[in-house]
Design goal:
The complex is a heterodimer of chains A (about 650) and B (about 600). Chain A has 25 helices and 4 strands. With about 650 residues, chain A is mainly alpha-helical. In chain A, a hairpin with a 2-residue loop joins strand 2 (about 70-75) and strand 3. The termini of chain A are far apart. Chain B contains 21 helices and 2 strands. Chain B has about 600 residues and is mainly α. Chain B starts with a helix and ends in a 39-residue tail after the last helix. Classes of the chains: A mainly alpha (about 650), B mainly alpha (about 600). Chains A and B meet through strand 2, helix 5, helix 6, helix 8 and helix 24 of A and helix 7, helix 10, helix 13, helix 15 and helix 18 of B.
């Protein structure tokens, strides 16, 4: 079967098979050393298949849909297992599997100690990672909301297990629980939104059918907006947007390749994909669009501000992911003002390039961490460019792409997003003014991004060579199993954007054939179509800002001197360093009250129980009251009998007399 | 063949009762004998399920003949394989879906006007077949986890367990109201002794007494309600009947007739009281924490997996079909008294669960929360909600039972389930940890595992397809909050017990504490596998119950027409169930016309 419809299940089957085989290997101590093999092979094979699917789709029919198989159904409700392959899904599939392959290869080196002996949970790690990639691939292929939710939650559970991989570490345990619960909070809204959409959309749950039904029978805008906003809750949780982004920075408690996986390929992109997939309904509701755009804009700026002062290398990268995801939602939020095809292309293109450079940066950080004996605080090492030349150069490529310096991948994709915002702001769309403001936010964030990225880069690799004592005498470059993935991803970070974007335009030409995007485009006929002409003015401005950020970072940090806070800025810096106190706000506003309510409920339950006991003691009390009557004196009983007879007789007498 | 299958159904009730009588004779070897007998019952159940499935699946499309002159066909349950079925026109291979076995007969009049009769009327249909299977499964689990824990007088212990099982199976299978009630009450006696004599703590006698009095008080009210319903709904010819299908027909034919709203409300309140206590629904749950805490773990499994289901099953089997109008009025759609109580219970139970330090208590309160959701699903009174709730009874039984069964692992080794005493068990017992994670994730509704399916169906029911409009119903929000809160307390427990630095209380036995052994592996692994299978292939369970769920949903739809007025335009009511012509009788049999369902019995 070389049809795309046959290949997609093969991708899922390979990954699931690898998971099962790896899980079985966990039980056999001799095989445990080779536990990485099934996953690496399965990922590589599925990446090959995914690229083959892309080639086939770009040549032939743009979309395939499998025959739905009922999963469960009752009455008007039916959840089916249906998958669809269209350019949107294919791009995601190829990105996920390709990046995951190299992360798996890297992990095979990373998850061992300095003597090359695998860690205790080696097989567990690769089994869960296999399930993780499997779930993500299922998510992008699903054509049914409930199948999508199933894989969506599967992704959540795998991230829970991987973030909590070092289970004995309390901070890892807390981070794992936080990641799962915060995303689950978003999912609660997501579920309600799906059901509302189910009801509005003629009781369909298959995405294609549902969107078609909504197109032909448009429900009232208010309800549809509610449904879209509820669905967006799920995306906010999963893609770590304001206000539910707090789990992502903590999630770096897991092994570093897991962070690379979560940040680049398999988890946080799910929310972006969801909104892109649901473009046909989101395009109909401008109010929900505005919320999406503002959530993205606020997140992009907020996270960039926090990232400015973080000293933990992975934390800087984590906040940069949050910020970059904000960019993607900014693009998606422009959907009504510009053509949905344009908006989604911009977002997914950034997702695509971001996957390369963010995976690269995290793996680079992992390489550093591996060499430094687990230390990742930039205050404790420096000048590593002499010790780790390959890591240094590849990290530089990734940093340049994140800072969107031309001509790296990040430059082209970020530019497309800014263009979408600019085009949207020039229309007569009701929220055009907002888009103007958001464009400004996007530009400011671009400058901040360049600054914090290169701050982290200079602090790590420049200045005097310093190594923490945990690293011992073996601070050295990582083995080839780890540096080769870095090199491959570095090439992607540098060139993928230019090749797929401005040089060939193959990315947008491919993506615009997606039927659901075409359908969304017909919903907003007046929207501006993508301009294929390159806008030098905007690109120049953003490049200037990025270069300014890099320059400032170079001036302040290239010497490797300890950080000095300029006078007057201390409160701002403290605010940023403490992550704007958002965690504390959550603690006070949500966690404490909920815990308090739980304790109160527990106490109330005891009260309720004693109330029940009080009722139960009523008979005994009555008995106590009546007890004096049974005093055992015959005379008293005789008196009682006499009195009773008198009462009875007088009652009868009065009745008859009347 | 059909008469043979009828004997199988009879054996389903008889085998546990016989086992209860036999097991105590074995003395110290009682646990082995109990296991063998429970396996026998499980095999029997499997046989009945395998035989019944094709029949139940086939009737999916419809069971009810059109009644001439009525807008809606009369809906009633159709039990299959009824022991004592005289057969249509004397042909034992055809069925009248009735029984000829009378237990008690009151005030027989002339021969053509027999008095009310209590009959041994049991049968299999889509609503009870899986619950009977659940009984057999959880019985096995209960015996396996009690294996080491019960050393004191094991003979009577396992004997009472079988009585408990017999009561539950009998109540699920009954189609006669009085018989149902008798089996329903039969479960009280073994529970009382099992909690009071084999309980763990000093408060066991108190807990047993509270449980007994509380549930007895509730179910006596239910008896009043049952008799009231029977007396106010005589058959068209003036007789009264305890046979549920006939009573359903009588109720539907008389609806709108005599009987004041006040009387209906009073009868409804009485009728539901016992079931709400048994479920339990907040605030009638106060017997539950003590009973679950004090009971030995094997009994806790049966209490949560089976006895709680008796309450919800009573709502489904008795209350919804017989008092549909009141169930609509006081359920979710009018003065939503019970709906509000169940909704409060969802949040309240989850909060209490979080506040617990004992894992056993956490599971108990979590069960209160889940059961609130189940009651909401039932009260939604539509195909999605009732179907989801009927499935959730099985799912909740398996997953809550499995959660308690997990605790048996800890109790056997450490005699405590206080989560403060444990830490880092993931490294200590990796195999146990895998099973514990599967079961815990199932209970918080992870897709691919069982609870997700039924929770989604009930959620669809709460969104109320009949009402139309683009509003998010409040009950659905509460239910969704319950799903989130369940993740909150379960993950907090997992973090304390399985993550973090290793910690364990002093072990009961000296030497190294082993990971799961073979016996525990079978019990816990089996339950975890059932969770997974039910999550992946739920339609196998849903298909056979479709026809029966449709009966309840059609009754609900008609009741809502009466209470709320006609449905808004564009609403498609549940598909009318039409009579499927059965296969022609075998050659040489009764011949002639195929038997209609529920033919009038031949005199």
């Amino acid at each position: 079967m070389s049809e795309p419809l046959g290949l997609a299940p093969a991708v899922l089957g390979l990954l699931l098979g690898a998971t099962v085989v790896t899980a079985l290997m966990a039980g056999a101590p001799r095989l445990r050393r080779f536990a990485h093999l099934p996953l690496v092979l399965a990922c590589a094979a599925s990446a090959g298949l995914a690229i083959w699917i892309v080639i086939q789709l770009s040549a032939g029919t743009p979309a395939y849909r499998s025959v739905p198989v009922t999963w469960f159904a009752a009455g008007n409700f039916a959840a089916s297992a249906a998958i669809t392959i269209d350019p949107l899904a294919a791009v995601m599939l190829a990105t996920v599997t390709f990046v995951a392959t190299w992360i798996a290869v890297f992990s095979a080196g990373y998850m061992r100690d300095e003597h090359g002996v695998p860690e205790r949970g080696y097989a567990r790690y690769f089994a869960v990672m296999g399930l993780f990639v499997f779930s993500m691939c299922g998510l992008v292929l699903a054509d049914n909301f409930f199948l999508l939710v199933a894989f969506w939650e599967g992704v959540g559970v795998c991230s829970y297990l991987l973030v909590g991989y070092y289970y004995a570490k309390p901070s890892a345990a807390a981070a794992a629980r936080k990641a799962f619960l915060v995303t689950r909070l978003g999912d609660t809204g997501f579920l309600l939104g799906i059901f509302l959409l189910w009801k509005l959309g003629g009781y369909h749950t298959d995405l294609t059918v549902l969107f078609e039904h909504i197109r032909t029978h448009p429900p009232d805008t208010g309800s549809l907006t509610t449904a879209c906003l509820l669905i967006f809750c799920g995306a906010v949780g999963k893609s770590a947007q304001f206000p539910l982004y707090v789990w992502l920075p903590d999630a770096m408690e897991g092994p570093t390749p897991v962070s690379a996986l979560i940040h680049a390929a398999t988890m946080v992109t799910a929310g972006v994909y969801l909104v892109a997939r649901c473009a046909p309904v989101f395009a109909l509701v401008p109010d929900a669009q505005a919320v999406v755009a503002w959530a993205g804009g606020i997140t992009a700026l907020l996270a960039a501000v926090i990232a400015l002062t973080q000293t933990d290398l992975k934390r800087v990268l984590a906040y940069s992911t949050v910020s970059q995801l904000g960019y993607m939602f900014l693009a998606l939020g422009a959907m009504g003002a510009v053509s949905p095809v344009f908006a989604v292309t911009a977002a997914i293109f950034h997702l695509f390039t971001h996957a390369f450079f963010k995976a690269l940066l995290f793996l680079g950080a992992g390489s550093v961490m591996h060499a430094m004996g687990g230390v990742i605080d930039t205050r404790r090492f420096g000048g590593l460019r002499r010790i780790m030349p390959v890591t240094h150069l590849t990290f530089l490529c990734g940093a340049a792409a994140l800072a969107a310096l031309p001509p790296t991948s990040g430059f082209w994709s970020k530019d497309l997003i800014l263009e979408a915002l600019r085009d949207g702001a020039e229309t007569t769309h009701p929220y055009a003014g907002g888009l103007q403001a958001l464009l400004l936010i996007g530009l400011v964030t671009a400058g901040l991004t360049a600054f914090y990225t290169f701050r982290a880069y200079f602090l790590t690799f420049w200045g005097q060579t310093r190594v923490p004592e945990e690293a011992g005498h073996h601070a050295h470059e990582s083995p080839p199993v780890m540096t080769v993935p870095l090199l491959v991803l570095a090439v992607g970070a540098l060139a993928a954007g230019a090749v797929a974007g401005p040089l060939t335009h193959s990315f947008d030409h491919f993506l615009e054939r997606t039927p659901s995007l075409q359908q969304a485009a017909t919903a907003v006929p007046g929207a501006k179509a993508p301009a294929h002409a390159f806008d030098w003015g905007l690109a120049g401005l953003s490049t200037l800002l990025a270069a300014g950020g890099v320059g400032l970072a170079a001036v302040l940090y290239a010497k490797g001197r300890p950080e000095k806070v300029p006078p007057g800025l201390e409160p701002v810096v403290a605010l940023s360093r403490n992550k704007l106190y958002v965690d504390e706000v959550y603690e006070a506003a949500l966690v404490k009250p909920l815990t308090g309510a739980a304790v109160a409920a527990g106490m109330f339950d005891r009260f309720l129980d004693s109330f029940g006991r009080l009722l139960a003691s009523a008979p005994r009390l009555l008995g106590h009251l009546a007890r004096p009557v049974q005093n055992g004196l015959v005379q008293f009983y005789a008196l009682g009998m006499a009195a009773g007879v008198v009462v009875l007789l007088s009652f009868v007498a009065f009745r008859i007399a009347r | 063949m059909i008469p043979t299958f009828r004997i199988l159904v009879l054996l389903l009730v008889a085998v546990p009762l016989l086992s209860a009588a036999v097991v105590p004779l074995f003395g110290r070897a009682a646990r082995r004998a109990a296991l063998v007998l429970a396996l026998l019952q499980a095999g029997l159940t499997a046989a009945v399920v395998l035989v019944a499935l094709p029949v139940l699946n086939q009737r999916g499309e419809s069971m009810m003949p059109d009644t001439p002159g009525r807008a809606r066909p009369i809906q009633r349950f159709v039990p299959e394989f009824v022991p004592g079925d005289p057969g249509y026109r004397g042909n034992p291979d055809s069925s009248t879906h009735r029984t000829g076995w009378t237990l008690l007969s009151f005030g027989d009049g002339p021969a053509d006007r027999p008095g009310p009769r209590v009959q041994f009327y049991v049968g299999v249909d889509g609503l009870n077949v899986w619950l009977v299977a659940l009984c057999s499964l959880m019985m096995l689990a209960a015996i396996l986890v009690s294996w080491e824990a019960v050393a004191d007088r094991p003979g009577p212990f396992y004997g009472w367990l079988f009585v408990l099982q017999a009561g539950a199976v009998g109540a699920f299978l009954s189609f006669d109201l009085i018989l149902f009630y008798a089996f329903f009450e039969l479960t009280l006696i073994p529970s009382f002794f099992l909690i009071g004599r084999w309980g763990n703590g000093p408060g066991r006698r108190d807990a047993a007494r509270k449980f007994f009095l509380y549930t007895l008080g509730g179910s006596l009210l239910t008896l009043v309600g049952l008799v009231g319903v029977v007396l106010t709904n005589p058959l068209p010819d003036g007789r009264v009947t305890f046979a549920l299908p006939d009573l359903m027909a009588a109720v539907q034919q008389r609806t709108g007739g005599p009987g004041s709203a006040g009387l209906q409300a009073g009868l409804f309140a009485c009728l539901v009281a016992g079931f709400l206590v048994k479920v339990p629904v907040w605030p009638l749950h106060t017997w539950m924490p003590a009973a679950y805490r004090e009971a030995p773990i094997g009994v806790t499994i049966l209490l949560s997996a089976l006895l709680a289901k008796l309450g919800t099953f009573g709502l489904l089997r008795i209350v919804l079909p017989l008092m549909a109008d009141a169930a609509v009025e006081y359920g979710l759609y009018g003065r939503a008294v019970i709906g509000v109580l169940a909704g409060v219970g969802i949040v309240y139970g989850a909060l209490c669960a979080y506040a617990q330090r004992d894992i056993k208590m956490m599971v108990a309160y979590g069960s209160l929360s889940h059961l609130g959701f189940l009651v909401l699903g039932l009260l939604a009174f539509n195909t999605e909600g009732v179907g989801g709730a009927a499935l959730h009874m099985v799912n909740h039984g398996v997953s809550t039972g499995a959660l308690f069964a997990l605790l048996a692992f800890l109790l056997d080794r450490y005699r405590t389930t206080d989560m403060r005493a444990f830490g880092g068990l993931m490294g200590r017992f990796p195999r146990f940890a895998v099973l514990a994670f599967v079961v815990c994730l199932a209970s918080i509704g992870l897709p691919g595992l069982n609870n997700f399916v039924s929770e989604m169906l009930m959620m669809a029911g709460l969104f109320d397809p009949r009402a139309g409009g683009g509003r998010v119903p409040g009950f659905a929000v509460v239910a969704a909050a319950g799903i989130f809160l369940s993740a909150w307390y379960v993950l907090t427990m997992l973090r304390r017990v399985f993550f973090g630095p290793p910690a364990e209380p002093p072990a009961v036995a000296g030497g190294p504490v082993p990971d799961i052994d073979g016996r525990e592996g079978v019990a816990l692994g089996g339950l975890a596998a059932v969770c997974l299978l039910l999550g992946l292939f739920p339609q196998v369970v849903l298909d056979p119950m479709e026809a029966d769920v449709a009966v309840v949903a059609a009754i609900g739809d008609a009741a809502r027409d009466r209470v709320e007025g006609p449905a808004p335009k564009g609403y498609v009511p549940p598909a009318p169930r039409r009579f499927r012509a059965p296969d022609p009788p075998p050659a040489g049999g009764g011949g002639g016309l195929p038997p209609p369902p529920f033919p009038e019995p031949a005199d």
